[in-house]
């Protein structure tokens, strides 16, 4: 990757849970708020970090739009500042000056400066006929507007107090220097709005402090709903809640519902299994938002019943799919919701889940075979796992196990809807798939994979081959016990390595070839617990929770060192932490001094 001169490769600090429990490293977690399609961050592209903070939009993809450079008022030179981010305010600090930013609403931030000026420039000064950012002054209200080709939006800067000390490059083209400098001997204040095409001139809704208070209250309500956990048991719960809150966007583009993106870094999509973990974490405190998360991929189900690989603002991808964990997720979601969905919603969900199941039974099961197949490792969600080293098109045990659970959940839904005949049919199919799984793929104390073309067998040392533990109580005891033994062999001091650490294919930063991942942890922990291996399940939960409290909410983690890897603000990791912490608290809630886990429930309202 070619990096711009002002960018460098990310080297993240390790500690995320800071001594000030409300502060976080903005190099790891972007500053944003629920509903917003933009954030403030130094991470401007995949694995790239700029010297300055930028306004980053996620409409039409991830795009750095505006660059913020603090300046000394006397000389106009760059001021070296320290960034301080909390869930409710971002500041640039340099003795004796300060610039503060808060969100007034999902599309509006307010800025206030004292003894520091601020230059606002396009992230990329080059302007062509199809790329870049154009700057002009609006003759209607006197505001300054940056219009971005990449996002298709405008960024309106309105001065509320102070002066525009510099405004250069207005209506300039090509590589003209474009910049605004906000200044004022008694301080200055301005507002930046992300707008579509036009909007009434900005009218303040209150002062800066009122905006800060409103921002703080919005986050406090969200955190109180999704993370009402004792701080001594879950010290990273508030930060996990912030990761979820700040990555949530309002409906726009292809996303028809409020959506929790996987991140407001470069992983700014909803993938069709990631969303399940976010739904589970939100279920008890914000049931409507949780239900929306579960349904998002189903809004785009194709004619065969397949779910898209991913959905984002302006793109839906169908070239791959994701594993059918949705029956497992729906069972757990219904257990966690404070109230069950209305019958019409349940019936529609039953129809959608049935079509998704039929896709695997028909479009992905070869004639004469009893088990479905993946077409690539990407379909499994474990993209480059060593399970797929020999063959990409493969019948695997995890897929069959997930399908059994999905059929079992369809049976439960059919019962709830009063269709006993359909329930029996679903259970019959589930039993047939499970029998084929055990007869065809279980041999010599392990599950193997096979080619649907040749029938040739393959084995690996990937944790993926042990995922049938998700069947829990449905497994024969000897199978569950052997799986538990082998899962324990993958357990490092920090959690479950996705490739055995003694394997010649193990890689510390090998994506699914070694690092610890949140979804595998949650699925295996649940399966072990239902299979009766509660001690091992407790140990896995404890190690993963401690890992997040030490290394944050990274996309994945080095299995031997615990270092957070890749995207450092990943929502399914935060959700998995909250889910495991909540369940641990419920199991131990009789300890003296702990308030009940439901103490702050209900702020999100009843399920619709």
From TrEMBL:
* SUPFAM superfamilies, alphabetized: Six-hairpin glycosidases (SSF48208)
Q: Gene3D superfamilies, per this entry?
A: 1.50.10.10
GO biological process terms held by the UniProt record: oligosaccharide metabolic process; protein N-linked glycosylation
Q: The organism sits in which domain of life? A: Bacteria
The segment(s) forming the Mannosylglycerate hydrolase MGH1-like glycoside hydrolase domain are 269-573
For this protein, the record's Pfam families field holds: MGH1-like_GH
The annotated region (Disordered) lies at 585-608
Report keywords, A-Z: Glycosidase, Hydrolase
**EC number annotated for this UniProt entry:** 3.2.1.28
> GO MF annotations for this entry?
alpha,alpha-trehalase activity; Glc3Man9GlcNAc2 oligosaccharide glucosidase activity
Q: What is its EC class?
A: hydrolase
Family membership? Belongs to the glycosyl hydrolase 63 family.
Name of the protein in its database record: Trehalase
Q: Which species expresses this protein natively?
A: Actinacidiphila cocklensis
């Amino acid at each position: 990757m070619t990096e711009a001169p002002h960018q460098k490769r990310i080297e993240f600090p390790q500690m995320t849970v800071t001594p000030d429990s409300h502060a976080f490293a903005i190099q790891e977690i972007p500053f944003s708020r629920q509903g917003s399609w933009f954030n403030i961050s130094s991470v401007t592209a995949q694995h790239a970090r700029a010297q300055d903070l930028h306004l980053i939009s996620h409409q039409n993809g991830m795009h750095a739009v505006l660059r913020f450079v603090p300046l000394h008022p006397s000389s106009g030179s760059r001021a070296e500042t320290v960034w301080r981010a909390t869930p409710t305010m971002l500041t640039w600090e340099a003795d004796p000056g300060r610039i503060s930013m808060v969100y007034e609403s999902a599309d509006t931030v307010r800025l206030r400066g004292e003894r520091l000026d601020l230059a606002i420039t396009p992230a990329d000064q080059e302007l062509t006929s199809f790329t870049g950012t154009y700057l002009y002054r609006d003759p209607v209200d006197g505001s300054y507007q940056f219009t971005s080709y990449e996002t298709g939006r405008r960024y309106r800067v309105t001065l509320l107090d102070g002066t525009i000390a510099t405004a250069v490059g207005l209506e300039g083209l090509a590589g003209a220097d474009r910049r605004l400098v906000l200044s004022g001997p008694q301080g200055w204040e301005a507002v930046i709005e992300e707008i579509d095409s036009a909007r009434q001139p900005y009218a303040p809704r209150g002062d800066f402090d009122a905006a800060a208070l409103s921002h703080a209250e919005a986050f406090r309500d969200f955190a109180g709903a999704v993370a009402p956990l004792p701080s001594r048991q879950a010290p990273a719960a508030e930060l996990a809640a912030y990761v979820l809150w700040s990555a949530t966007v309002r409906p726009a583009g292809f996303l028809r519902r409020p959506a929790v993106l996987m991140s407001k870094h470069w992983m700014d999509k909803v993938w069709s299994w990631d969303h399940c973990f976010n739904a589970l974490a939100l279920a008890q405190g914000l049931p409507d938002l949780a239900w929306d998360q579960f349904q998002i991929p189903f809004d785009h189900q194709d004619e065969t019943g397949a779910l898209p690989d991913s959905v984002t603002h302006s793109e839906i991808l169908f070239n791959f799919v994701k594993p059918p964990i949705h029956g497992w997720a729906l069972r757990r979601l219904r257990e966690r919701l404070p109230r069950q969905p209305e019958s019409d919603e349940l019936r529609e969900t039953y129809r959608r889940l049935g079509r998704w199941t039929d896709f695997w039974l028909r479009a992905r099961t070869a004639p004469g075979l009893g088990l479905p197949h993946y077409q690539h490792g990407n379909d499994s969600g474990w993209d480059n796992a060593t399970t797929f080293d020999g063959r990409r098109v493969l019948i695997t045990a995890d897929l069959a196990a997930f399908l059994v659970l999905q059929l079992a959940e369809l049976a439960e839904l059919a019962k709830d809807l009063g269709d006993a005949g359909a329930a029996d049919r679903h259970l019959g199919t589930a039993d047939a798939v499970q029998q084929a799984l055990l007869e065809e793929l279980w041999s010599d104390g392990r599950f193997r994979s096979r080619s649907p073309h040749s029938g040739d067998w393959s084995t690996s040392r990937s944790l993926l081959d042990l995922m049938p533990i998700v069947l829990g109580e449905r497994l024969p005891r000897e199978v569950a016990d052997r799986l538990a033994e082998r899962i324990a062999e993958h357990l490092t001091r920090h959690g479950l390595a996705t490739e055995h650490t003694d394997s010649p294919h193990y890689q510390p930063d090998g994506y699914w070839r070694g690092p610890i991942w949140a979804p595998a942890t949650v699925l295996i922990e649940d399966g072990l617990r239902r299979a009766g291996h509660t001690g091992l399940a407790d140990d896995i939960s404890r190690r993963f929770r401690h890992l997040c409290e030490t290394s944050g909410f990274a996309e994945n983690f080095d299995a031997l060192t615990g270092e957070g890897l890749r995207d450092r603000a990943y929502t399914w990791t935060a959700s998995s932490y909250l889910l495991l912490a909540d369940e641990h608290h419920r199991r131990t809630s009789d300890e003296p001094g702990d308030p009940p886990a439901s103490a702050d429930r209900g702020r999100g309202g009843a399920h619709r």
